[in-house]
Amino acid sequence: MKGVSTTILEREGLRALMDARLEVFLSRAPARASDYCLRMTSGTTNGAPLFIVWDNEFTAHGLFSGVERLVICTGSLAARSGNALLLRNGRGAERTRVMCADIQDMTAGFRALMDDFQPTALYGFSSFVRRAAMFFSQGIAEGVQALLFASEPVSPALEDAFRSVFPNASIRMVYHTNETGAVSKPPCGHLPLDSYHLIDGVEAEIDDPDETGAGDVLLSKRVALDLYVDRYRIGDIGRLRRERCPCGEELTLQLLGRRGYDYIRIAGALLVQQEFERVAGSLRSLFDDYRAEASSLVTDSAVIGRIVLRVYRKDGVWNERIAKEIGGRFSECIFLTPTKTLSDLVQDGVFLPLLVEYADRPFAAKLKELKLTQRKD
Amino acid sequence: MAGLQHDVHNLIERVRGSAKSTFYRDLWGTRKSFDELPLVSREDFLRTPLSRRRYKDERALVKIVHEPRGAFLSEWSFADIAREEYGLSSIRPMVYLSDPHEAIEKSMWCYERNMLPLIGEKDPDIAMFAAGKYRIDSLITDAAALQKFKPYFESHDRLKSISVFGSAFDTAALAPHAAFADTFRLVLALPETGAFAEAAYSSDPRFKALPGCIIEREETLMVSKTRLLVTPVIRYRTDISAALYDGA
To answer: Which of B59, B60, B133 lies nearest to residue A22, judging by beta carbons?
Structure first.
């Protein structure tokens, strides 16, 4: 059901809708609590987070069908609780067992616990799952039938790493967001990991596409019995392909990157467009424009973040000293977590040192004005 | 008490005859009566994988219990979580606990009691922001987490109830918080046993056993629960000082 609105719903408009819905919710207890869960988005853009009442009927993904023993590897407690609730509500196998792992559990002792639990599936952030994978003995890893991902992209390198550790596991991604819940159907098996078929009733448009067809993704879907979100700019860049998939679907949404309205998540850190702009603004004397490209590098034991900063100078002056100064000052100033800068994370071994490259001509306006993008190697 | 004895006797017979695990049967040998049964403790749970002390197969949550000697798994069926006396009834409960596994379990408990819970993220500022948005009316917490929440209490209405979980309580440190709720309740609990005793807050709290719980005292407390849990709790020796408990 496509909305008739021509207006694009921006984040602040969504906030107003969600807050209004919350007020209605606060006025009375729900008839069945397990139909709902409470979620909050990161408060990284425009101040406060969004506080959202999820209606599970409209937001739940279908990834857990048939899952017997699941380890959930997500960051927020609300996401863990919400996903555990799905299993409690019967969305897994009849006698499913679920464990909500925490990063503090990732110690040598986790291996024995996995030997005991014998998971058949893992769900969550790809970086967290990569970390947990270190602790799987070969036999236990061979028993894992599915790796289920959301929120962080899975690069081809990471996909290869997972296939080598979990040789019998299918890798399945779902596109869902904190604001809207599930957007895509469980994967059909014919698509690459960055592409999705939309759930029935969900519509996607591309706002002001460039010559490659890429632009801002606008989503329209019902998120609750009493709330239809119409043409919401979700913050992702993508393109739509209207061609018949072998599974029979006629439409595919390919995600290309994060607009930077909110964040890119790399190696557990949040890279925020606004933060890049802030730091770039403070270094105006050193460069006139920039593009930042984030990616992740997969090692035997971890996912390490990497940022390439390409800079343009109108005066055309460039040497190693300038590159070093930009790299040092940018790294020391930019916060990738609430308390840690890139320099801190380099020291912690979570990120590689910033790579600064020189652009010999002004940046063309490709992929809109996306100054911070995510590269999938 | 006769009812409890009858229930625990039935449990012992059921556990002894179980085809799913020999954990207790191997420990008990030929001993039959409750008082004769050897004690179990965390060491036994640490030593014995969950898969060998699982007495039933139901839809369940599995927690990781960390302690200085290592970690072990504790499995709780959703049906058993529902029967625990973790909190009190309210409309907008919040769970804010230091241990993430315990937090998820108590969140599930709220759902089992048909309450929509807010689960507090680790960062107290984020947790307090969410609490304000949701206008919580009760809190399930522990002493350490409760301390972090003080700024919230000082700027919001009194809650209906606060339930503080732990195995020991510094009542003097808790005293300032008692004013923040109509009911301020202390709950004796361990991740692997669930809750087994409760007390209204006072400077000298009087704990009483929760329904279905048998508490014995030597130097420390021993806990038994009359329900068949995934890993039954039968004469489980805790490290909780018996001086803490003088209830029936």
So the answer is: B133
